[in-house]
Each structure stands twice: as structure tokens, then as C-alpha cells.
Design brief:
The chain is mainly α and about 100 residues long. The protein is elongated and about 50 Å long. The chain starts with a helix and ends with a helix.
Length: about 100
């Protein structure tokens, strides 16, 4: 399994690359990027229209920026679902006949 430190490193790297992606998208203000990252958990649980409103509240006045963040969120959610599925598949195959024999 993943050690806690690995998970923390992954989280840190994910935030760093996310920050870079937001910057590349044209969201140059640090405050905006921090706001987006702080709102991520909330955004994930919201509907698309709620997300747009939330991002506007964070200070992203440009629709293009807000839509860019939404696409990024979809991408992140997809990647996460994929990683989780892979991890579960790995765990399932690990507890196969070999585990019983040992």
C-alpha cells in the first residue's frame, strides 16, 4: 500500500502541477489560484453551474478561466477515478490463489 508520506508527496506534487496548469491557463494571480485550490473539494461535490458561481466568487471574472478550471476538474476527477480503479484491481489480484497458498 501507499505510505502516508508518499500520499503527502503526491498531494504536494499534484498541487504544484495544478498551480502550473492554472498559471498556464492565464490565471496569473496567486490569490486566484490559491482560491481555486482551496475550493477544490467543494467544487468536486458541486454541479457545473454551482462550480461556475463558486469560481466567480473566488475572483475568476473571465468565463474562459472558469471553464478552463472546470475542464481541469473533470480531468482530475477522471484521473483519480482511474487511479482508484487500478489500485482496487491490484488489491483484488493480490488476494488471489497465491495468497491462500502462502
Amino acid at each position: 500500500g501507499l505510505m502516508l508520506s508518499d500520499a503527502r508527496d503526491y498531494e504536494g506534487n499534484a498541487r504544484k502541477s495544478l498551480d502550473a496548469r492554472l498559471k498556464a491557463m492565464g490565471i496569473t494571480k496567486m490569490g486566484h489560484r490559491c482560491g481555486v485550490m482551496a475550493a477544490l473539494p467543494e467544487l468536486r461535490a458541486s454541479s457545473r453551474s454551482e462550480r461556475l458561481e463558486r469560481l466567480k466568487a473566488v475572483g475568476l471574472s473571465k468565463l474562459g478561466h472558469r471553464l478552463g478550471v472546470l475542464n481541469l476538474l473533470d480531468e482530475l476527477n477522471g484521473a483519480e477515478t482511474c487511479t482508484r480503479a487500478t489500485a482496487e484491481a491490484g488489491a483484488a489480484s493480490g488476494s488471489g490463489p497465491t495468497g491462500g497458498a502462502a
